[in-house]
Amino acid sequence: MPISFSRSVIIIVLVAITTFATRLFPFVLFPKGRKIPKSVEYLGKVLPPAVIGMLVVYCLKGVTPLSFPFGLPELIASAIVVILHVWKRNNLLSIGVGTVLYMVLVQTVFK
């Protein structure tokens, strides 16, 4: 059953409101000048690397090193992401270039 236009608009508006509310919530909970609890500071330090680690595991879970292409596209793209990030310290650049490189490798080189 196709979704009607009005239903699609309602879904988009609700998703936009929810996204905005989640971005606004920390500023309402911890207004400028209010001390941030130590537990929240700790989570702010440990969660980003943990999330990146989970994403790496998720992205590489389907690699089959015993059959062609032996995980080479993933290894090459991952190495480029690490090298670019260490060199430039730019998340968008390193992830973007790594993604484009991986897609080029799997669609042209390791067909």
Describe the structure.
- This protein is mostly helical.
- The protein has one domain.
- 76% of the residues lie in helices and 0% in strands.
- It has four helices and no strands.
- The chain has helices at residues 5-29, 38-60, 72-88, 91-109.
- Helix 3 (72-88) packs antiparallel against helix 4 (91-109).
- It is flat, with a radius of gyration of 20 Å.
- The mean pLDDT is 93.
Note the main attributes of this structure.
single chain; 111 residues; 4 helices; mainly alpha
Put the structure in a nutshell.
With 111 residues, the chain is mostly helical. Helix content is 76%, strand content 0%.
What is the strand and helix layout of this fold?
Blueprint: H1 5-29, H2 38-60, H3 72-88, H4 91-109
Helix pairs in contact: 3-4
